[in-house]
Write a structure and sequence with these properties.
3 helices; 80 residues; mainly alpha; elongated
Length: 80
Amino acid sequence: MPHDLSAVRARLAARARELGFSAIGITGIELAVSRLEGKFKLSQNRPAADRPRIIAALEHREDADSWEMARLMREREGAG
């Protein structure tokens, strides 16, 4: 659903004036994402000897997100 760009520009210009700078030249764009690539970043940049300590520290935390991260790191260690 396309946005009314003139209304968006007017809001941006008003906000820019409130902040004390010119909105001239500000342009908005809309992109359709057709593909998204991700990368696991689970302390691979750390020395291999550090990773088991990182996993253990995550496993000792009390939140599910830390436990899940530890599980993913442990899984990735075996896949390497």
